[in-house]
Amino acid sequence: MAEDTKARATVRAIARGVDQTPRKVSLVASMVRNRSVADALVILDHVPRRAALPVKKVIESAQANAVNNHGLDAKSLTITKLSVTTGPRMRRFKPASRGRALPFEKKTSHILVEVSGAEKPKKKPVAKAADEKKEEKK
Asked: Which pLDDT belongs to residue 123?
């Protein structure tokens, strides 16, 4: 209950143009959606899919943004939104029999992660100021 009363901030991280199909990446993303960041990273370490690495990197980036840039507590971070959308498609051609060229598309995806958590408690600088006054008197 105490955590619910504190203000929760939301931080984002985006990976654009990941060279994997959105369908395969979204299978991995659905495993860790709405979990805590620590649980998600442990799960992604043990998932034997190639798409686990870019999803893990984006979650780690969102965690670093939250802790370093926005002053959130790392232990309270949870994944509030994890979406995988289609990125640009590159049209390529594959050689076929009798001199033909068959078209295909190299699909890419964008991964968006939003993380929310409680802010770190602010340290009180009052004790530091009192120590400086004592040193000045000496």
From this structure: 73
